[in-house]
């Protein structure tokens, strides 16, 4: 099989058979690997590249369960070139992996990244058959690896596996739950570079459903323990839907404007074509009226046929112009109807995004464990009017996390936007920062505005929270 293209294998008397191509990585998989360079928030992310149709390939007997086998050049995914590894090294870290994921009640093969993982390094041992090597991977039947030379490779996935290309998204908590991976190192004399191999069990529909339920359960447990992360994900999804609807509305408005601009010309074309038809008909009438056949001579019939042909041609042009105008009007009606629906849909999506944003902000601003719970005295933040000696202050959104992870610091803007003050609940002080670059200016007494501690520009800076 070609690098990046899955193959199906069923365990036989000698285990699993795998054919490794020496060709370059397929362009499609290379694009996916490039798209998953990161960095990624919230752990493992992936892009599904193949969907699995279990009814086509799953077996009832676990011993005969088909395996999906995918190979890649090891150096494309490892942190360290596998060819440079010491012979006694048993594992290597991979940046990107090929594993199974479940979504929408289906099993998929995806390239995932965001959480490097160590996989075993195994040696390919020669067999009696030329070009065939025996490989042992933990948790899998014996693997017979064939390295053909000059043999055409498959260019399409086998029956039961369909190519797909989605966007990058969280890979889920059970990603790789039915996949085993290894880097195969071949004898030096073969000239074959190390190969990364991923072997995935094909799940039955019942197994897919079971794993989907496990994925859902673990996601719910995670969201309960990390509510802000779950709400941020909900907001990002709602915002993406709103942005997509805005793009759809912009496209519809552009098409409507373009059609409306073209309509006067289309109407004029119909009028001009109709005029030409009437002129052609008048030409024939005049000829027949003023040129009787017995006076005109033998060419009379030819002239009538010529005039009839002209009428026919002008009618065809009129028909085409009218059809073009009708198509424009129909397109305009469809787009206006679609725009009405899109505007209504946008209202709903805007409300959904706003609700999600409000929930996220409420969670961000929700009182967390104060520093008192971590062994310190807790000083509640003062009201804006209670702060003296620092001029006019305006309350600002909280951005900087508190020490210990207990929410975010209260913030005020002062000195006409040139300074930021944040509440230190551990010491009951206001920390001052320069608004332009986040540099620390010192600590201030909220009751008098007097500076009580000097600046700490190296130890304190809120540039990334401006």
SSE sequence, one letter per element = EEHEHEEEEEEEEEEHHHHEEEEEE
Total domains:
3
Rg computed from alpha carbons, rounded to a whole number of angstroms: 36 Å
For the sheet with most strands, the description reads: 9 strands, mixed
How many β-strands, per DSSP? 19
Uncertain residue segments = 369-377
The outline comes out as flat
* Individual helix count: 6
Helix content: 25-40%
Mean pLDDT level? 84
How many angstroms separate the termini? 52 Å
**In percent terms, what proportion of residues is strand?**
15-25%
Region (Disordered): 149-177, 208-231, 328-415, 432-466
Domain Colicin receptor: 226-361
InterPro entries: Cloacin_colicin, ColE3_ribonuclease_sf, Colicin_E3_ribonuclease, Colicin_R_dom, Pyosin/cloacin_T_dom, Pyosin/cloacin_T_dom_sf
Domain Colicin E3-like ribonuclease: 379-462
Can you characterise this structure?
It is a single chain. With 466 residues, this protein is α+β, with helices and mostly antiparallel strands. It has three domains: 219 residues, no CATH class; 134 residues, Helix Hairpins (Orthogonal Bundle), CATH 1.10.287.620; 95 residues, Ribonuclease domain of colicin e3 (Residues 456-551). The chain is built from six helices and 19 strands. The radius of gyration is 36 Å and the shape is flat. 25% of the residues are buried.
């Amino acid at each position: 099989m070609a690098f990046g293209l899955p193959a199906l294998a069923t365990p036989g008397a000698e285990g699993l058979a795998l054919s490794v191509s020496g060709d370059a990585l397929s362009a499609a998989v290379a694009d996916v690997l490039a798209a998953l360079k990161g960095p990624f928030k919230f752990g493992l992310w992936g892009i599904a590249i193949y969907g699995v149709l279990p009814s086509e390939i799953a077996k009832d007997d676990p011993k005969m369960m088909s395996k999906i086998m995918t190979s890649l050049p090891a150096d494309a995914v490892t942190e360290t070139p596998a060819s440079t590894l010491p012979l006694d090294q048993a594992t290597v870290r991979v940046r990107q992996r090929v594993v199974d994921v479940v979504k929408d009640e289906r099993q998929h093969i995806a390239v995932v990244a965001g959480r490097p993982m160590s996989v075993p390094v195994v040696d390919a041992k020669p067999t009696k058959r030329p070009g065939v090597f025996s490989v042992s991977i933990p948790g899998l039947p014996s693997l017979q690896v064939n390295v053909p030379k000059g043999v055409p490779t498959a260019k399409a996935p086998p029956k039961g596996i369909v190519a797909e290309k989605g966007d990058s998204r969280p890979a889920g908590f059970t990603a790789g739950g039915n996949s085993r991976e290894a880097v195969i190192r071949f004898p030096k004399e073969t000239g074959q570079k190390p190969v990364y191999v991923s072997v995935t069990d094909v799940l039955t529909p019942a197994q897919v459903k079971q794993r989907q339920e496990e994925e859902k359960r673990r996601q719910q447990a995670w969201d309960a323990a990390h509510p802000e992360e779950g709400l941020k994900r909900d907001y990002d999804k709602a915002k993406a839907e709103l942005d997509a609807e805005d793009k759809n509305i912009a496209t519809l408005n552009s098409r409507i404007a373009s059609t409306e601009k073209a309509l006067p010309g289309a109407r004029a074309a119909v009028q001009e074509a109709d005029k030409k038809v009437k002129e052609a008909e008048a030409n024939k009438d005049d000829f027949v009226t003023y040129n009787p056949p017995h006076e005109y001579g033998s060419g009379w019939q030819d002239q009538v046929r010529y005039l009839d042909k002209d009428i026919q041609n002008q009618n065809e042009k009129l028909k085409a112009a009218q059809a073009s105008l009708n198509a424009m009007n129909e397109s305009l009606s469809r787009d206006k109807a679609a725009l009405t629906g899109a505007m209504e849909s946008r209202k709903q999506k805007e409300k959904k995004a706003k609700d999600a944003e409000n929930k996220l902000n409420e969670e961000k601003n929700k009182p967390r464990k104060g520093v008192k719970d971590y062994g310190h005295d807790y000083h509640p933040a003062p009201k804006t009017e209670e702060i003296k000696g620092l001029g006019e202050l305006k309350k600002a959104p909280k951005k900087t996390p508190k020490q210990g992870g207990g929410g975010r610091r209260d913030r005020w803007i002062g000195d006409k936007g040139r300074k930021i003050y944040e509440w230190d609940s551990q010491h009951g002080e206001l920390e001052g920062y320069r608004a332009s670059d986040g540099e620390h200016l010192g600590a201030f007494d909220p009751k008098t505005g007097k500076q009580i501690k000097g600046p700490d520009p190296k130890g304190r800076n809120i540039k990334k929270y401006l």
